[in-house]
Amino acid sequence: MHSFGYRLNGLLTFSVTILAIMCAIASLSDNLNSRSPSAEIQVMNINWFQKQPQANDEVSLTMNISADLQSLFTWNTKQLFIFVAAEYDTPKNSLNQVSLWDAIIPAKVHAKFWIHTSNKYRFVDQGKYLRGKKFNLTLHWHVMPKTGKMFADKIVLTGYSFPEEYR
Amino acid sequence: MGWIGETVDSVKSIQMRQLLTQAVSLGMIVTSALIIWKGLMCITGSESPVVVVLSGSMEPAFKRGDILFLHMSKDPIRAGEIVVFNIDGREIPIVHRVIKVHERQDTGEVDVLTKGDNNYGDDRLLYAQGQLYLQRHHIMGRAVGFLPYVGWVTIIMTEKPIIKYILIGALGLLVITSKD
């Protein structure tokens, strides 16, 4: 009953249980955080807007993205993954979401930022439906914890639209 | 010679009973682990409710050796979600983020494109020949939570199978030699 093996077994079981409970509590503490993020995206320029040889529309644009996401960070946050997606519908697809740009914010100090960038990933439609179409730009963020449950949310900014003709 | 035979018989019978008891307790441990695993599969709705991260393609969010908890619901797949999927012909599931979603008007089926955070390009190179998008049936689950470092045990046991055999051998030895 008091051999080395039993003591080691008891110690290991106890420490694993305590670690698991600590991870669960750390994750639950994230719920106490009240969040107030803000963001703004301006489309500075539509660089070009063309039809590909395979008959899909493609557009390249330059955006000004500014945001203050500092309130999303807690002590249990490892990083914030953010991305900007264009959302629109077409006669063929009820919803299209195309990610244009993403970034990883490793610390709270970097969470208030301003960036002038063209789209990191190609904005290609499934079809030829983009002319004159209205679309939303949504800033999504994923809070990746040091341990536990991940949170995700977004801000939807409306009012953007494509030009009527290719250029 | 008679009493030697008697002693040997009684010793053998005690051993037999002890051995059987220990075999049954070992069986109980193994089956309860199986019950927990299958129960998790039912609760989370995913074929493998827990996966180990094997590559560095999602760093710095998930490093090699982390484990991810998966959940699969009927909710539509949206951009930004971290999904685990299987490619036809590859046995190892891949954990990457959805960057493009096209959902059909009429059928509600989705075409999904994924990319690892730490990779330069999207996953089209990983998909099967001629496949441009993933469909819902390729996706095994969404990552909803994670624990760091715990998966190293599985990685070590897979990459150096000798350690697996040593562990199982030691466990078996422990069971047989323990007095209760």
From TrEMBL, chain B:
<dbReference type="GO" id="GO:0006465">
    <property type="term" value="P:signal peptide processing"/>
</dbReference>
<dbReference type="GO" id="GO:0004252">
    <property type="term" value="F:serine-type endopeptidase activity"/>
</dbReference>
<keyword id="KW-0472">Membrane</keyword>
<feature type="transmembrane region" description="Helical">
    <location>
        <begin position="162"/>
        <end position="178"/>
    </location>
</feature>
<dbReference type="Pfam" id="PF00717">
    <property type="entry name" value="Peptidase_S24"/>
</dbReference>
<dbReference type="GO" id="GO:0005787">
    <property type="term" value="C:signal peptidase complex"/>
</dbReference>
<keyword id="KW-0378">Hydrolase</keyword>
<keyword id="KW-0812">Transmembrane</keyword>
<dbReference type="InterPro" id="IPR019533">
    <property type="entry name" value="Peptidase_S26"/>
</dbReference>
<feature type="domain" description="Peptidase S24/S26A/S26B/S26C">
    <location>
        <begin position="38"/>
        <end position="114"/>
    </location>
</feature>
<keyword id="KW-1133">Transmembrane helix</keyword>
<protein>
    <recommendedName>
        <fullName>Signal peptidase complex catalytic subunit SEC11</fullName>
        <ecNumber>3.4.21.89</ecNumber>
    </recommendedName>
</protein>
<feature type="transmembrane region" description="Helical">
    <location>
        <begin position="139"/>
        <end position="156"/>
    </location>
</feature>
<keyword id="KW-0735">Signal-anchor</keyword>
<dbReference type="InterPro" id="IPR015927">
    <property type="entry name" value="Peptidase_S24_S26A/B/C"/>
</dbReference>
<keyword id="KW-0645">Protease</keyword>
<dbReference type="InterPro" id="IPR036286">
    <property type="entry name" value="LexA/Signal_pep-like_sf"/>
</dbReference>
<dbReference type="InterPro" id="IPR001733">
    <property type="entry name" value="Peptidase_S26B"/>
</dbReference>
<feature type="transmembrane region" description="Helical">
    <location>
        <begin position="19"/>
        <end position="37"/>
    </location>
</feature>
<comment type="function">
    <text>Catalytic component of the signal peptidase complex (SPC) which catalyzes the cleavage of N-terminal signal sequences from nascent proteins as they are translocated into the lumen of the endoplasmic reticulum. Specifically cleaves N-terminal signal peptides that contain a hydrophobic alpha-helix (h-region) shorter than 18-20 amino acids.</text>
</comment>
<dbReference type="GO" id="GO:0009003">
    <property type="term" value="F:signal peptidase activity"/>
</dbReference>
<comment type="similarity">
    <text>Belongs to the peptidase S26B family.</text>
</comment>
